[in-house]
Fold each of these.
Amino acid sequence: MTKQAIGVFDSGLGGLTAVRELLSVLPNENIVYFGDTGRVPYGNRSRETIKKYSMQDATFLLTKNVKLIIAACGTASSVAPEIGDNLSVPFTGVVAPTAAAAVRATKNGKIGVIGTTATIKTGSYKREIKKINPNIDVYEQDCPLFVPLVENGFISADDQVVTLVVERYLSSLREADIDTLILGCTHYPIIAEAISKALPNVRLIDSGRETAIYAASLLKESNSLSEDNLKGKCEFYVSDTTEGFSTLAGIFLGRDISGQVSHIDIEDVAKKFKLG
Ligand code: DGL
């Protein structure tokens, strides 16, 4: 079991925030990543579609014989957490570990949550926070333009387009006097610098990072880590062209991954496993 890879999926680049952390905390692990770049964004789609896509993504990872699946996507984790019930391997989404980290971080008991429209509609993070501490005030805001910005490479905190959009969505949270902000979509840490500029002195909680830390603890507890002397390998799969993804992912991960990215037809996976 131990040599099997960790499977990670997202609608696109966002799940790399979890991969980046996995590479740092578990350097011996093999990782298989699937970014559904042909169908991104998920966050403005219906529950049925998000659930169907997420199940197809997880099923693709199972064909790679992974030992754990991480839905490194706030939208899939919020809208379709039940997909984990039908998988043959352990599964985690991002909501619970991220909410717990935010509760640990807040000092004034005011937490902001930003995510895709689909995520915010579910109230998933708020529910999870209130489960831990009902006295915490939670302020939610959807930011539907953030994912398209990131997927198109608009990530610099010096870019006026980025700062304008960030300001538009986050000004209400500044007024709410939050001291902690959940980046409830895994794409958002990629524009963390711009978000911090708009909300100085607010602690940002990175859903990809917190989930990777949680996944590492799951593997440790179940004795499923790979052996120490292995150097982990990464394979990346996308459902659209490999070029754009390779470039942006390489910048974000700080390494050249161009030879490790392959295209797959996710519709074929759906047909083969009758997940249409
Ligand atoms: N990274 C996904 C999330 O965490 C983005 C969803 C989308 O494609 O809209 O929600």
Amino acid sequence: MIVFTEIKDVREHLRAERLAAAKEGRELKVGFVPTMGYLHEGHASLLRSARMDNDLVVLSIFVNPIQFGPHEDFERYPRDSDKDMALAKREGVDIVFLPSVNEMYPQPTKTKVQVAELTDHLCGAARPGHFDGVTTVVSKLLNIVAPDRAYFGQKDAQQVAVVAQMVKDLNMDVEIVPCPIVREEDGLALSSRNVYLSPEERQSALVISRSLRQAEQVAREQEEATAEDIVAELVRTIESEPAAKIDYAEIRRFPSLESIPGSMRVKDVEGKLLIAAAVMIGTTRLIDNVILTTEGVK
Ligand code: PAF
């Protein structure tokens, strides 16, 4: 495993690897997993998919300051380079790209990448500018690594939708591969931010996955269930936990993220549905979701 901190070095290395493969008459497939580090089994599952599908796996670790709001947790975002390197080695990563803030954003920088509409809802509404930061850094990383495939976790379902839209709109030559949410045995979706939770808060946080499971069950089992019923079920369960404060609890089409009329029966919606929640547990904001296909609902 080779670690690079400079853009020119990672580019040069990848160019040489591609050239060497071409000389042997092979096309080198590069899989890319962009992360902010503090890696867990969710990231490991992305790396495993990348390992299976590609000849070379590149992992980036960069806590991207421009996707954090002024009062968010950029400074205290968890970091553990040694543990990250051990996990990367274990998962057979070939290249780790570990740039500094100055390497990624030499000043002054005047360009940002912005996806409209999809970013108006859910986390985009609660975290203004967040997705501009994500799409800007993901564009830069995709330009640097030029992968064939890039892997993203479905826990950030809106991020997957936004990045896929950006790649399509900008004709970027990369396949976006969404990967399923990885959960603890008790249902809690893995997140680097889970480290902020006290033992009591961690217990309270279970209400999020429980509420989504229950909402999913209503959608699947109750023929007449409307979009409003699903949201009501979600809200009712989350509000039963005193330590939980809802930021949003919604049902939308996926990946367009268009709203669904409250009175519409869920089984009448065509395509995929996203049931998503963002909940404050103490000072920690957690997100989770389930994606349903209408075939699954009918
Ligand atoms: O999902 C994340 O960890 C980040 O949003 C990403 C995609 C690495 C961009 O900073």
